[in-house]
Write a structure and sequence with these properties.
The protein is of the alpha+beta class. The protein has helices at about 5-10, 25-35, 100-115, 140-150, 200-215, 260-275, 295-310, 325-330, 355-374, and strands spanning about 40-45, 50-60, 65-70, 90, 95, 120-130, 155-160, 170, 175, 175-185, 190, 230-235, 245, 245-255, 280-290, 290, 315, 335, 350. The strands form six sheets. It has a six-stranded mixed sheet with strand order 1-2-6-3-7-18, with helices on both faces. Strands 12-14-10-15 form a four-stranded antiparallel sheet, with helices on one face. It has a three-stranded antiparallel sheet with strand order 4-5-19. The longest helix is centred in the C-terminal third of the chain and has 21 residues, at about 355-374. The model has no long low-confidence stretch (mean pLDDT about 95). The chain binds zinc ion.
Length: about 375
């Protein structure tokens, strides 16, 4: 048997700021091989701070295949912690450490739940060391490797910390997409007293932004709020009071629902900007498309496991930032459920010890139900 608390403490004591590799994977591997998992560890790329390691662990080859996806890397702790961010110490029922809720605690809970699981199906753990960073060498590399080896889950649970106030109050069944757009409008520099000899780029930029601010992208739908465009930066950098500047720039961020696609939004913004400023350059970068696993068998199964342990009926949500579930949703139905996210990425990140044990029971319930459903 594996205790979720002991395993979380061991994982927390291994510093694993993105890109994660080495010790933190050694700890997971030891716990998984002891339970009969076949562990495949591989390095997929180098980042400035070191290599990215990933792991695919599989047990069984028949029956329904449930995959659990997570990450062993963490964001930097930053200054101001009460104790060491790598101590894994318990004070007043709370276990402290960077990654306690996001998401070493849920990885440990799933491994502990797997130790109790029946042999009636197939379990896999997909663990990356590059989720909090650029996520270039992480989950997408794992999916390439799964394709090469014909590893195909039927259902996927991502262990991100989705609970808001109490463990079990929220499941995520989708996420909004995200695109950032940079606008640069060239003009012609000149003296403010001789505007006919210059071309002020601020006029067309402000007119374009006014139109963009008034844009209604959509009205949302049953599962998503309306898509939203925010102007996040305006930059001219003109130090002189008597100079018309040569350039004006702005940046936008759009969080969008499943009625939109990132590239279409960039094209739409470009068309509006170019109408006001034909010489403008508009550059977009899509960091993730929206996805939705429509409420159904998987969300019901996870919800039932939560209700059985906590008495709560979880809300099905699509709020928050992007997650690696956006990649995994191409493989099979995917939902996200994990610990209370109140302290994630914060100083003194902590998980309630009781929640770790309750999450282990819930994951146990998910595995049992997934195997029975096959
Ligand atoms: Zn996370």
């Amino acid at each position: 048997m594996i205790d979720a608390l002991d395993l979380t403490q061991a994982l927390l004591r291994a510093d694993s700021v993105t890109p994660a590799h080495g010790a933190v994977f050694d700890i997971a591997e030891t716990a998984l091989t002891a339970q009969g998992f076949r562990v495949d560890r591989f390095v997929t790329g180098d980042m400035p701070d070191g290599p990215v390691e990933n792991m695919i662990a599989v047990r069984g080859d028949t029956g329904p295949h449930l995959a659990f996806a997570g990450h062993l890397d963490v964001v930097p702790p930053g200054p101001g912690w009460t104790g060491s961010p790598w101590s894994g110490e318990i004070r007043s029922g709370l276990l402290y450490g960077r990654g306690a809720v996001d998401m070493k605690g849920s990885v440990a809970a799933f491994i502990a739940a797997a130790a109790r699981a029946p042999a009636a199906g197939t379990l896999s753990l997909l663990l990356t060391g590059d989720e909090e960073g650029p996520a270039i060498h992480g989950t997408r590399a794992i999916m390439d490797r799964m394709a090469e080896r014909s590893i195909r889950p039927d259902l996927c649970l991502v262990g991100e910390p989705t609970s808001a106030q109490r463990l079990g109050d929220t499941i995520k069944i989708g996420r909004r997409g995200s695109v950032n757009i940079w606008i640069d409008v060239p003009g012609r520099q000149g003296h403010v007293a001789y505007p006919h000899l210059a071309d002020n780029p601020i006029r067309p930029l402000v007119a374009a932004l006014a139109e963009l601010n008034g844009l209604v992208l959509d009205r949302g739908n049953d599962w998503f709020q309306a898509s939203n465009l925010e102007v996040t930066d305006l930059h001219v950098g003109n130090a002189a009071t008597n100079v018309i500047p040569a350039h004006a720039a702005a940046r936008l961020s759009i969080r969008f629902n499943d009625e939109q696609r990132g590239d279409d939004l960039v094209a739409r913004v470009r068309a509006i900007v170019e109408r006001h400023a034909p010489a403008a350059t508009v550059t977009g970068r899509v960091s993730g498309e929206a996805f939705l696993t429509p409420p159904g068998a998987l969300s019901t199964l996870v919800g039932n496991a939560i209700t059985a342990r906590t008495g709560l009926i979880p809300e099905l949500s699509t709020t928050g930032g992007t997650s690696d579930a956006r990649f995994l949703s191409r493989l099979c139905p995917v939902v996200e459920f994990g610990l209370v996210n109140a302290t994630m990425h914060q100083v003194d990140e902590a998980v309630a010890v009781d929640d770790l044990h309750a999450l282990t029971d819930i994951y146990d319930g998910v595995i049992t139900r997934a195997f029975a459903a096959g």
